[in-house]
Amino acid sequence: MDILWPTIRSALVKERSSVGFISREPRLNGELHVLISEVSGAEQALEAVSNALSDVPNFSEVPEAIVQAKVSGNRVVVAFDEESSEAISSHLVNTASLELASRLAAFGLQDGRIDVLDVGDGVIRFLGFNTAPANELIGLFETQGKISLRSVIGRTENRGTDAGRGNDLLPARSEQNSYFIVEQSNIIENVDFIGFESTFDLNGHPAISFRLSADGAQKLTSHTQNNLGGIAAVVLDEEVVATIRNEVRIPADEGLIAGRFNKSDADRLAAILNTGSFAVELEVVQFREISPPLNLPN
After folding, report:
1. Which among 259, 271, 141 has a CA at the least distance from the CA of 197?
2. Is 147-275 the same fold as 2-83?
3. CA separation (Å) from 260 to 154, 176, 207, 241, 283?
4. Domain locations in the chain as residue ranges
5. Contact at 8 Å (CB) between 222 and 188?
6. Which long-range contacts (CB under 8 A, 24 or more apart) does 80-84 make?
7. How far apart (Å, rounded) are the C-alpha atoms in residues 120 and 211?
8. Would you give the end-to-end CA distance of the chain in angstroms?
């Protein structure tokens, strides 16, 4: 249950204009209780949480897991039965281990190995063998890899700006005191992309090219035709990394993300995006480096 909290929290943060401030109560009988400050937004909070849970791919792969969300006053309560909770926890651990290993391979560390030590209270402890230095490893795992294109409503230098209902205020990744007001709904998202590659734009600056699925290309083409001249933000893990002007493109299933990247940034992001986003949000809470005993390999 604890490992789902980041996913639930992110869903509610997007509805903050309706649900107000959110906070989590201590765990009660295997249930997750979330308090919202705006009682009038309870039903919208419930819908957001239910949608977020249905989008977690692990549930479709663990059919015996049954999760329910309900509203009680200004609380949203999420609960599994005991058997479902154990099934989900086991599957999430296996999925996280595979995803961590995939990230290592993407960076040429095929010989690296991730061994899960234990799991508890939403924390996975693992040992990494033959991996990158710890600080580089953390950088790989802290990037969730969630990418989307969203319509830009405006831009501001005031982090306290009210984005308005249905919008988000997101920081520009490479600029201080710069924020974009973007629509919460995505034009395209991870599932619509089929490949990324580090490259250069027409001016010789590092960039990332992408290819879209047929469905993704149709979504982007339809949006572009209806919003010619408008601006779309490339959002990576809730930060705006670049903007794209809506204009007719041929072919329609390819595009270029030309942000303020250096070559190393472009290489790293393309590799991460090609491995896909994590099934659930991961947060590094602690790390330390240890040396192997004498006469043993790293």
Report:
1. 271
2. yes
3. 20, 13, 8, 8, 25
4. 2-83, 85-142, 147-275
5. no
6. 80/1, 80/30, 82/30
7. 39
8. 35
C-alpha–C-alpha distance, residues 44 and 109, integer Å: 44
| Tens digit of each residue's pLDDT (9 = 90 or more) over 33-52 | 888 888 888 888 888 888 87
Confidence of residue 78 (pLDDT cuts 50, 70, 90): confident
- At residue 155, φ and ψ (nearest 5 deg) are -140, 150
Looking at residue 49, its pLDDT comes to 83
Q: Please state the three-class secondary structure of the chain as a single string.
A: CHHHHHHHHHHHHCCHHHHCCEEECCCECCEEEEEECCHHHHHHHHHHHHHHHHHCHHHHHCCCCCEEEEEECCEEEEEECHHHHHHHHHHHHHHHHHHHHHHHHHCCCCCCEEEEEEEECCEEEEEEECCCCHHHHHHHHHCCCCEEEEEEEEEECCCCCCCCCCEEEEEECCCCCCEEEEECCCCEEHHHEEEEEEEECCCCCEEEEEEECHHHHHHHHHHHHHCCCCEEEEEECCEEEEEEECCCCCCCCEEEECCCCCHHHHHHHHHHHHHCCCCCCCCCCCCCCCCCCCCCCC
So what's the architecture of 147-275 in CATH?
2-Layer Sandwich (3.30)
**Considering the chain, what percentage of its residues have pLDDT values greater than 90?**
18
Chain segment 230-284, per-residue pLDDT in tens = 899 999 888 999 888 887 665 678 888 887 888 988 888 888 888 777 766 666 7
| 289: its two tokens | 């480096």
Quick one: fold of 2-83? Gyrase A; domain 2 (3.30.1360)
pLDDT of residue 244: 86
pLDDT for residue 164 is more than 80 = yes
